[in-house]
TrEMBL record:
Official protein name in the record: DNA-3-methyladenine glycosylase I
PANTHER family, sorted: DNA-3-METHYLADENINE GLYCOSYLASE 1 (PTHR30037), DNA-3-METHYLADENINE GLYCOSYLASE I (PTHR30037:SF4)
InterPro entries xref list: Adenine_glyco, DNA-3mA_glycosylase, DNA_glycosylase
Membrane-traversing stretches: none
Length: 201
């Protein structure tokens, strides 16, 4: 068996190299192999990812991923029209829901962002808006140390979303979103997923 290109990669029993964060936990491994970094270009899919990245702030992604079914149930599968119509009783229901992250500020931001998503339909729509910040080049990291936590594009996206009425969309959170939905490819060189999105050759 060949050694992986980076000490931050682990070659599994299937012979595939994955980053250490995705190499052991079956849930994270499945997420890495099938979802992370794959293009999402629909409004509801992007609204869900935007919401979950905001909830993840300050927590581990594994925590959010384990709670994702409960999040989807609590937030009506992140259908923007339904979330935008939430009222104070919905806010109290969500803050009391032990299945999700009970953070009032993040709950409020999700409702705010659903309403801002609806408003964006009068322009290019959430998907085209977010994807318009795709950079000309993507990082080529060999190790975790070479993976940025934000970029000029994620900073610009953050500012643009805030101007459009969105909340809890800082540049680091937006860079994580860009990684998750394929706008940038930060799979480590040598990972079996590197270049698999079709967005970056």
């Amino acid at each position: 068996m060949t050694e992986p290109a980076s000490s931050d990669l682990i070659v599994g029993e299937d012979g595939l190299a994955r980053p250490t964060w995705a190499a052991r936990d079956p849930l994270l491994r499945a997420y890495y192999d099938t979802e992370w970094g794959m293009p999402i270009r629909d409004e509801q899919g992007l609204f869900e990812r935007l919401s979950l990245e905001a909830f993840q702030s300050g927590l581990s992604w594994a925590t959010i991923l384990r709670k994702r079914p409960a999040f989807r149930a609590a937030f009506d599968d992140f259908e923007p029209d339904r979330v935008a119509a939430y009222d104070d009783s919905d806010r109290e229901r969500l803050v009391a829901d032990a299945g999700i992250v009970r953070n009032r500020r993040k709950v409020d931001a999700t409702i705010t962002n659903a309403r801002a998503t609806l408003a964006l339909r009068e322009r290019e729509g959430l998907a085209d808006f977010i994807w318009s910040f795709r950079p000309a080049r993507t990082p080529q990291p060999r190790s975790y140390a070479e993976v940025p936590t934000q970029s000029a594009e994620s900073l610009a996206l953050s500012k643009a979303l805030k101007r459009a009425g969105f909340a809890h969309v800082g540049p680091t959170t937006m860079f994580a979103l860009m990684e998750a939905v394929g706008i940038v490819d930060t799979h480590l060189l040598g990972s079996h997923r590197r270049g698999s999105s079709g967005v970056w050759s």
